[in-house]
Design brief:
This protein is mainly beta. It is built from 2 helices and 12 strands.
Length: about 200
């Protein structure tokens, strides 16, 4: 099967990485372009999430000075986080959304992802790791320790089954994710928001 023909997204980035810097009061995320040779390219966006605050909204900036916002995502409802999250451009116009499927996620985390021309379903790639993670989270004391498991997510087009987005967590001192977006219809801002959500909201 092939992806239905459509022009590329206004902000398409085929590959990038996300680095997380954990500080006492905040989680900081750097979205970095990946060069054709696999090396790190320029910074694409920076986001910060206060650790003691609610996780309903994350704003992305051009860099860590946070002087210019470039996009954001926000929960539709403050109480019912299962209602989903919308992704907005700098003018506050929606450009996509994502939602965790809590029923399916009891054993294997599952998400829905939507953008202009893209409707995709995402799940953890390895079902065994997904089950072990669940056990880890429910064991007293262990659940408070950061997950040592390496887990990956694949998002596939709902109509064709073609890969839209792959997010792979790598072994490192701080969380690092490698992201591939082979579908040119997927806006980088939607892909980046989904990647941060997989880290920031996974336990929700």
């Amino acid at each position: 099967m092939t992806v239905p023909p459509q022009g590329p997204a206004p902000m398409y980035v085929p590959a990038f990485s996300m680095k997380q810097r954990i500080t006492l009061m905040a989680n900081k995320y750097e979205l970095i372009a990946t060069n054709p040779d696999g090396s790190d390219g320029p910074l694409l966006a920076f986001a910060q999430q206060k650790r003691m605050a609610f996780k309903e909204e994350v704003t992305f900036y051009t860099d860590d000075t946070k002087s210019q916002a470039v996009f954001s995502f926000k929960a539709r409802k403050r109480i019912d986080l299962g209602s989903g999250y919308d992704v907005f451009d700098p003018q506050g116009q929606p450009i996509g959304w994502f939602k965790k499927e809590f029923g399916k996620s009891l054993l294997r985390s599952s998400w829905q992802l939507s953008g202009a021309g893209v409707e995709a379903d995402g799940t953890e790639r390895n079902p065994t790791v997904a089950i072990v993670r669940r056990i880890w989270e429910f064991v007293p004391y262990l659940g408070e320790i950061p997950l040592p498991f390496i887990f990956h997510f694949d998002f596939k087009d709902r109509a064709t089954g073609e890969l839209v987005l792959a997010v792979e967590r790598k072994v490192s001192v701080r969380d690092r994710y490698r992201v591939n977006a082979p579908d040119p219809r997927l806006d980088f801002r939607v892909a980046a928001a989904m990647t941060v959500a997989l880290d920031a909201l996974q336990s929700r």
